[in-house]
Amino acid sequence: MLHRPFFRWVLTLGVLLFGWSAYLYASYPETRQIDLTVIKEKADGRCTVRWEDPYHDGGRRREAAYQCDPDRGALLKPSHSILGTENGWETGFMFTEGQHKGDLEPSLDDRDPYALSDGLVLIGLALIAVGLVGGNIRSSVRLTGARPKTVARARKLYEAADQVAQDHAQARDAVRAAWNALRHEQTEAKLSATPITRLIKGVAVGRAAQEVEAAGARTARDVLDAGVLGLEHMGVDRRTAQRAHTAARRLADDIEAALSVRLDPAASGPHTTALLVALHVLLEAGAEAHQMARTGKELADELDRVLAEAAPASGYRSMLRAGREQRETARSAVTELRSLMALAEQEGLPARFAQTSVDLLRAPEDRNLGLSARVDFESRTSQYYGLLAQVVDSRGALADG
Fold first, then answer.
1. Which pLDDT does position 395 carry in this prediction?
2. Which keywords are on file for this protein (predicted)?
C-alpha cells in the first residue's frame, strides 16, 4: 500500500485559501479615513452621520446610516450640555476608487467587504497549522526505521562479496580460454599436417586425391577451409568434394576427442604461456580463493535479497513514500542486514574478500609472472595438471608432464 499524503493536501488547501483571502483583500477598492458628523445616535450606537463627498463637482454633503462606537467618550456624542450643539463626532472610511467612490464603507449591515476575506484567512491558517503539525508528526513516525548508513554499508559488503565471486570466475575463465586456444592450435597443426591421401580412401583414392590436390587443396585443413562449394568452384566434382569434406570433418572431431595436450614450459607459444600464467594465479591464490569465492557468492545472493526488501530504508524520502507494509518489511530487513554484517565483520570477510580479489587480478601480460609460472610448473607439475582438469572439465586426456 502506497503512502497517501493526507496532511500535504490539507496544507495545500490551507495555502490556497490563504492566497484566495489575500486576493480578495487586494481586490477591494482603496479607502481613506474621514471625520463624520453625528446628527443623531441611539444607545446601541446606530446613528445618522454627515460627511463631505469631495468626488462630486464642487463637493457636497451626504448623509447615511452608520454604526458608531457606543463606548466612545461622551464628549463625542450628540449633547447640548457638553458641546453646545446637538451634533456629535465619529470617524469612518470612505471609498476613494471604483463605482462606490465617495461612499462610506458599510458598517450597519452584514455586507462587510472584508468578512469573506477574514473568514478565508482564518480557515486557511487553521488548515496550514493542521497540515504542518500533523504532517511533521506523521513524518516523524514514518521516518523511524530509515537507516541510510546501514544500507550503504551493506551495499559495500555486497559489492565486495559479489566482486570476489566474479574475480574467481574470471580467473577460471582465463584458464578455460587459454586451454581451448592451445587445444585449437594443436588441432589445427595436426589438420594442416594431414595430407589428402589420408582423407580419401577406397578404390579411386589415387584419382580422387589427385583431383583434390590438383585443385589446390593438399591438406585436411585446406579442405575444411574451402568447404564443399569451395572445392566445387576449384574444379572438384561434387561427389568427391563432399567425400573429402566429410572425411576432413570426421578427422577434426577425432583429433579433438583424442587430443592429449602436454604442457611444455620450454615452449614459446603464447597460448602455453597464457595457460601456465592463468593456472599459476589460481594456485597462488590457493584453496582460500575458492572458499572465499563460494562464501562471497552465497553472501552476495543473501544480501541482494535483503537489500531489495530494505530499499525504502536507504533514504528518508523513499521511507516517506513507502506504504506501511513496505516500511515494516524494510525495518525487519535492516535488522537482518545488521546481523549479516556483524557476522561478516566477526569473520573478517571484508578484508579477506579484498585480499582474494587482489590475488586473483594479477596482470597476465606481466613477463615476470610468466617466468614465475614456468619455474613454478617445474616444481609442482602434478598440481598444475590437477587444477587444469578441475577447471576445464575437458573430455580430452591430459598428458602426464
1. 41
2. Membrane, Transmembrane, Transmembrane helix
CB 314 within 8 A of CB 151: yes
Domains of the chain: which residue ranges? Answer: 31-93, 148-177+263-392, 198-258
> Is residue 216's pLDDT more than 70?
yes
Ranked by mean pLDDT, the top range of 178-182, 202-206, 299-303 is: 299-303
Q: Backbone dihedral region of 397: left (phi > 0), alpha (psi from -120 to 50 degrees) or beta?
A: beta
Percent of all residues in the chain with a pLDDT value above 70, rounded to a whole number: 80
Q: Which of residues 141 and 334 earns the better pLDDT score?
A: 334
Asked if the model's pLDDT at residue 366 lies above 60, the reply is no
**What's the grid cell of residue 191?**
589438420
Degrees to nearest 5, angle at CA 352 with 346 and 353:
110
For residue 336, which amino acid is it? E
pLDDT band with cut points at 50, 70 and 90 for residue 255: confident
